[in-house]
Design a protein that fits this description.
75 residues, mainly beta, OB fold (Dihydrolipoamide Acetyltransferase, E2P), five-stranded antiparallel beta sheet
């Protein structure tokens, strides 16, 4: 899934991401950045994420433009 970071607290590792498809606000669980290239998130940052069965974001990863379905630059 893809979305945009609404809030993120680097002290607790928790925050909120807004899902692209329905604008739902989903809680970023503490530890969601473990094993990711991210060390922290900033408001407005586009991310790919994974939800657990309870609807919490449990994994956040960086998305290349191709992964996000954006057109790539033609040179």
């Amino acid at each position: 899934m893809q979305g945009v970071v609404r809030t993120y607290d680097p002290q607790t590792g928790e925050g909120v991401v807004v899902r692209d498809t329905d604008r739902a606000e989903l809680v970023i669980a503490a530890g969601a950045l473990d094993g990711s290239l991210f060390r922290m998130l900033r408001q407005g940052q586009r991310v790919n994420f994974v939800l657990d069965p309870d609807g919490h974001v449990t994994q956040v990863r960086i998305g290349a433009e191709a992964d996000m379905g954006l057109p790539t630059a033609q040179v």
